[in-house]
Amino acid sequence: MTITLDNALGWRDVAAVARGSALALSPAAWTRIANANTLVAAIVERGIRAYGVNTGVGALSDTVVDRPQQRRLSRNLLMSHACGVGEPLGAEAVRAIIAAEINNFAHGRSGVRTEVVATLAGLLEHGIVPEVPARGSVGYLTHAAHIGLVLIGEGRAVVGGDTVAGGDALAAAGLAPLVLEAKEGLSLVNGTPCSTGLACLALARTERLLLVADAVAALSLEALGAQMAAFEADVLAARVSPGLKESGEVIRTLLTGSRIIQAAQGARTQDALSLRAVPHVHGAARDTFENACTVVDRELQSVTDNPILSGTPEAPVVSSEAHAVAPALAHAMDSLAIAVAQVAAMAERRLDRLVNPLVSRLPPFLAADAGSCSGYMIAQYTAAALVGENRRLAAPASLDGGITSALQEDFLAHPTAAATKIQTIIDNCERILGIELLAAVDAGDLRGDAADCAPGTAALRAQVRAVAAPYRDDRPMADHLARGFDLVRGGLSIARPSTGQPPIASGASS
């Protein structure tokens, strides 16, 4: 599939490119890029002072850089700003950042040449993944600089699974290293493409995660004989929340026709909150997700370079501003991180009820022979540990603060940190849901009434049993849990009854 960039990409477009779709630019987009570059040429020719064009950057913004040194400035910015540390980002994350960067330039306010954008697009087309260390950025500079290094034949890139020098990666694809002109070095490290690209991936993963969370909860509700009166449509309608309504509909659809649920009605006045409040927690997360989608799409529709260009070649206008600061994006990712962490915390509570014989009325820890077998006893510990890690990670990155560049950049919104840490929270939530998924299916087997399951949950159980046998302390638990994680992340196909959209059957992300 080819995604065509005309006015602006949406978050789904960026996620699709990250996962392998091709990216093309419309003629109008190419024209905007070229027109903006004529403004840079006019600024350079006339000596109009412009940040990062003929001045230094950051605290050096009042230091004039004469014309012979402007190419050197662009190159040096990549060299000095490429100071990331730690393990590299995965291929999808890097591709998402590149797609968002191309989107930013296509607004036609940055001034880079079309050759720069074409070479970035060439990285995507030829499967060249710049090696981008994941850590060491308080904003947006570091990750983008490592991508920029490859454009000029420096740095390293992964091609076909092998790590090679940036110049060799370009040569193998028939691409020439760029010699950067004025402002291009600054534009390549500036703006919010890094945090925006990562946020697009977080949204794609969260969308699937929330549907899977509803499905896994339905399996647990059935295994525990939940009281479904709390999930009736007219009851849930009393609380206004589109997300709550959708979660309730998914759960009701999956449990329709369950003789287990029917037999349990009236057994208790009401269930514990980890069962009864599933639509409320999952629904709140869905509502937070929808708000985050709006924020990320606005970010993609926005120009986030500094400075931005306008006017004509005869009267160019250079505007220094703060569009590269993205507090709204940081807030959205922080909020979504909290929402996903809460979904994970509730899943662990349902898991605990599945393994606790005092409330499940099932064998302790779902063990085949309690005593000689421990079943899911320690798997619940694992889930609890991941909940604790999520709690620590969910502290808002947007409040981290920090002072950089000799007081010139004395406020930091940390959108990249927010968009990075949510990836780990999502990963942890997927693992917790994977444990609950396996435990819920095993619990259903131990009930001995699998034939009475709802058609919806029976279909889910069949998918699980196709790859994971019941756990009987007969193999390392870690291997068993890995199968649950794979199912949650991408292997479980689930219908989306309230949207009419096709099932989500894949959601892997690196």
Automatic annotation (TrEMBL):
CDD domains: PAL-HAL. Coiled coil: none annotated. The keyword Lyase applies. One of its GO terms (molecular function) is ammonia-lyase activity. It comes from the Bacteria. InterPro entries: Aromatic_Lyase, Fumarase/histidase_N, L-Aspartase-like. The keyword Lyase applies. This is Histidine ammonia-lyase.
